[in-house]
Amino acid sequence: MAESGTTTVLDIANTDHAWEPSRRSGLRVHWFRELLGWRWPARWVSWRAARRSWSEHPDSDRLIAHVSPHAPYSAHPRLIVKAAKWAYRHGKRWGIHLAETVEELDLLATGGGPMRDFLGDFLGRNWRPSRLVALEHLAQISWPRACPPLLFHANHLTAREFDLAARLGVAVVHCPGSHRYYGRTTFPLAEFLSRGIPVFLGTDSLASNQRLDMRREVRLLVEMHPEVGCEAALRMAGRDAAAWLSGAAAPVGLTPGAPADLWWWRLPQSRGLAGPTEALLERLLSTSEASSEVWIAGQAVPARRNLNLYSSP
């Protein structure tokens, strides 16, 4: 990801397998430890494993722990409350998958559909649907309102849920490449932005995307939502997301005290190129070349080398 100019990553994982590769990558990684479990003792086992992971891997300037109960249907309400309270007490962030598919909505509303068949024993015989739409289901759980979640996807909210999202103070991650891969209906970007709900960009994963290149995500967003423009889309992919992850007290961008995260490209035939910012950004986003250099917190990261993160050091 450094080759495409990425300096800060939000990663979700329910094991520690990627912790060491992430450390070696040189990237700044915000780890969202995923929690899974509806039945007892599965949810207790997941919570205990997360606590052990946080203890064994204390935060550093490049690796920062957070938490993510997977989804309202796969994490028991008590597990969601535990996660949110932990985040609130420790000044962390928490995120949750929500309204990613219409099948999820069917499960929460009726208790049936293909997801109920797929999850089977994971939910157990005593699992009952809330009969609520996705965000209303999450809102009726008693998590600390001063610590609102980051919603992953949020593709299928109802009209009244957008207003609820604004009142709750949530933020949203949208993955344009994954959205196109699955052939989903148009993402309701304007509904979020018109209510002041922050929307950030992600890749989801290589399981549903061609590559982990944030330039491509920005290009796809502008292609699908041309009213946004390159400059605003880049902020959604970078500065806005970094500011949310770091908290209001941490400066970002070209401001005193902010981390010196920099990247640049040599664009073909660009000597003396001048013009509107939007035109320059279009040129930048159209290239598939690796960045010439990337700096993270004032230190150069070798952007051009192929980071085989899972090899021996």
Describe this structure in words.
- By secondary structure, the protein is α/β, with parallel strands linked by helices.
- It has a single domain (2-301), classed as Alpha-Beta Barrel (TIM Barrel), CATH 3.20.20.
- It contains 13 helices and 10 strands.
- Strands 4-5-6-7 form a 4-stranded parallel β-sheet.
- Helix 2 (42-56) links the parallel strand 2 and strand 3.
- Helix 10 crosses helix 11 (230-237).
- It starts with 7 loop residues before the first strand and ends in a 12-residue tail after the last strand.
Features of the shown structure:
313 residues; alpha/beta; TIM Barrel; 4-stranded parallel beta sheet; 3-stranded parallel beta sheet; disordered C terminus
Give a concise summary.
The protein has helices at residues 19-25, 42-56, 77-90, 102-110, 114-119, 134-139, 159-168, 176-181, 189-193, 214-224, 230-237, 239-246, 277-286; strands at residues 8-13, 28-35, 63-69, 95-98, 150-153, 171-174, 199-201, 262-264, 293-296, 299-301. By secondary structure, the protein is an alpha/beta fold. The strands form 3 sheets. It has a 4-stranded parallel β-sheet with strand order 4-5-6-7. A 3-stranded parallel β-sheet has the order 1-2-3. The protein has a 3-stranded antiparallel β-sheet with strand order 8-9-10, with no helix packed on it.
Write the layout of secondary structure elements.
Elements: E1 8-13, H1 19-25, E2 28-35, H2 42-56, E3 63-69, H3 77-90, E4 95-98, H4 102-110, H5 114-119, H6 134-139, E5 150-153, H7 159-168, E6 171-174, H8 176-181, H9 189-193, E7 199-201, H10 214-224, H11 230-237, H12 239-246, E8 262-264, H13 277-286, E9 293-296, E10 299-301
Parallel strand pairs: 1-2, 2-3, 4-5, 5-6, 6-7
Antiparallel strand pairs: 8-9, 9-10
Helix pairs in contact: 10-11
